[in-house]
Amino acid sequence: MSAAQIGIFALLVALLTLLVWGRWRYDVVAFTALVVAVAAGLVPIDRAFSGFGHPATVTIAFVLIISRILASSGAVDWAAAIVRPAAAHTSTHIAALSGLAAALSGFMNNVGTLGLLMPVALQSARKAKRSAALILMPLSFGSILGGLVTLIGTPPNIIIANFRAETTGEPFGMFDFTPVGAVAALAGLAFVALIGWRLVPAETAGRATSEDLFDIENYLAEAAVPEGSKVIGQTLSQIQDATTEIDALVLGLIRGEHLLPGHGRWTPIQAGDRVLIEAAPEELDKFASALKLELGGSTETGEKPNRLKSEDTAIVEAVIAPGSRLDGLNVQSQRLINRHDFALLAFARQGQPHRGRLRSFRFRVGDVLLLHGEAERVPDALAAFGCLPLAERGVSLGKRGAAPALIAIFAAAIVIAGLGLLPIAVSLGAAVAVMVVLGLLPLRELYESIDWPVIVLLGALIPVGSALESTGATEILANAILGLTAGGSPAIILALIMIVTMTLSDLLNNAATAVVMAPIGVSIAERLGANPDPFLMAVAVGASCAFLTPIGHQNNALIMGPGGYRFGDYWRMGLPLEIVIIAVSLPMILWVWPL
After folding, report:
1. Which of 205, 360, 429, 457 counts the most CB atoms within 10 A of its CB?
2. d(C-alpha 548, C-alpha 349), whole Å
3. 177 close to 74: Cβ distance less than 8 angstroms
4. DSSP assignment string, 32-64
5. Domain limits at 323?
6. Which long-range contacts (CB under 8 A, 24 or more apart) does 436-444 make?
7. What is the distance between the alpha carbons of residues 214 and 349, in angstroms, rounded to a whole number?
8. What pLDDT sits at residue 350?
9. Is 360 contained in some domain?
């Protein structure tokens, strides 16, 4: 091997190791890999940032924008109406939800689809008295399966289509993925609805539903501030700091009969005020005694009204989404929530509400938060936090009435691209421009809609992927794979490509997997003298089907907290599902795209 090949292999091994380890965010790892590749001469300096203007990157950015605005267009009510009649039985409930998710994911970003349907799923599960764990994993898998059907359904398809354009001069079209993807998706949905949900471990399915995940009213109390109390003149933050040894959380300040705006966190306390506290019963006396406050009776018996609920305030249950600004922050050190005058009441991880100290924990993707704040500020606050709402607790994020116009514009863009009149990136870009001009898409939301870590990941890895080809490293990897199937038929090699791609996608970001495996697939096809299209299709299917772990796909991470799943729960449904996908999609690939 040449020095360049050794260098790119060393970089690739380090990149994959760091992505699997997960210690640093994938966009940071990818950009660092790009910088190292440029410094080592593996990527030409004039090509260092070519990935950020690549058609695949631009297309994905537009898909993210349109998905976000469609998800906030009031479609939740429409989705709930579709699901409601099917909720009587578990299989029909799951079939309706996962089928709807698949249909939407064919044209929307699947993370956006999941964010749209998760509140519907949880609400319908509550009404049916059904565990969220039985519903959310099939919903996530359904949204992933739907991405197989069209060009814009998932980032790997867009990457594969543009890679084909670079190697053959012609990209895959909007619906070139449909014959294989639709059959694979239908088979996967049938498995999930009829068999898959039964494989969720009983102990997971039997955990608390999201309705009683945060039963905070059993732990609320009011403590009156008497004349001469030492807390007079202090703020809630100051008295919280003064009671760090007591397992109690200060929630707000009540003056008269009203909870002060912003919970009174920065308002000096006066005699006669009441402090709203969350604590276990045995901790309430400790807190009141330490500050010389007078307990006014807890809400445990339901005798006192819930001071957190009013016409102007809302309790919001939300999940930390991938790319959230809260991810990795220490609960005690977070200032973002307080800066928006919201209070963190409680949080849960993997379906278990935390009743101990909040200050020693760090936020993770998939954690479920219970927030309280001004109702009218909820949409902006959740957008700033990078959280998705989970429940109808007085919050509405929809842009009512805009859905028909948005759908019409989006549909026109799809038709134009499908007819080949404009490239998909240009067509979607024009759709975004029309939405902005018509006032359907505020400029602030335009930039907030883009998942920038994904864009950085693609922009950084596309030049690194090109270096695999330019250094000849893909030929070495292709020979290694061919060596594993010495004497095997091209169909067996195609199956191995799909299996290897699926395995990588279960551990890495699916877009990163597509960038790495696409050139290897084409190189193998060239070695065999075969049509590269079936190999690219195998990579596209394999990269999109990450069902074994919560880290392989953003959707799987997103449902981990609300569903109460553990890391080892996913493979029980995911492994047989991947086997079904392989068994169904390989014959379809060989039929539609002959070797």
Report:
1. 457
2. 20
3. no
4. HHHHHHHHTTSS-GGGTTGGGGSHHHHHHHHHH
5. 313-389
6. 438/405, 440/69, 440/399, 440/402, 440/405, 440/406, 440/409, 441/65, 441/69
7. 11
8. 67
9. yes
Same domain for 84 and 189: yes
Q: How far is 160 from 500, CA to CA, in rounded Å?
A: 16
Rg (CA), the chain: 26
Residues 76 and 199 in one domain: yes
**Mean pLDDT score, 132-152:** 91
Of the chain, the end-to-end C-alpha distance in Å amounts to 30
Look at 291 and 52; give whichever has higher pLDDT.
Answer: 52
What is the per-residue pLDDT across 549-580, written as a single tens digit (0 to 9) for each?
A: 887 788 888 888 778 788 788 999 999 999 99
The string of DSSP letters for 567-581 reads GGGHHHHHHHHHHHH
Cα(140)–Cα(197) distance, rounded to whole angstroms? 12
Q: What is the pLDDT of residue 55?
A: 85
How many CB atoms sit inside 10 A of residue 19's CB?
A: 23
Q: Report the alpha-carbon distance of residue 580 to residue 547 in Å, rounded.
A: 12
Structure tokens at 103: 């249909």
Shared domain for 536 and 473, answered yes or no, is yes
Residue 229, sorted as left (phi over 0), alpha (psi -120 to 50) or beta, turns out to be beta
Q: Are residues 416 and 521 in the same domain?
A: no
pLDDT in tens, 479-503: 887 877 766 788 889 999 999 999 8
Is residue 254 in some structural domain?
yes
Tokens at 517, concatenated: 């495996």
Q: What is the dihedral of CA 61, 65, 67, 68, to 10 degrees?
A: 130
Interval 92-120 mean pLDDT: 86
- Alpha carbon 84 to chain centroid, angstroms: 24
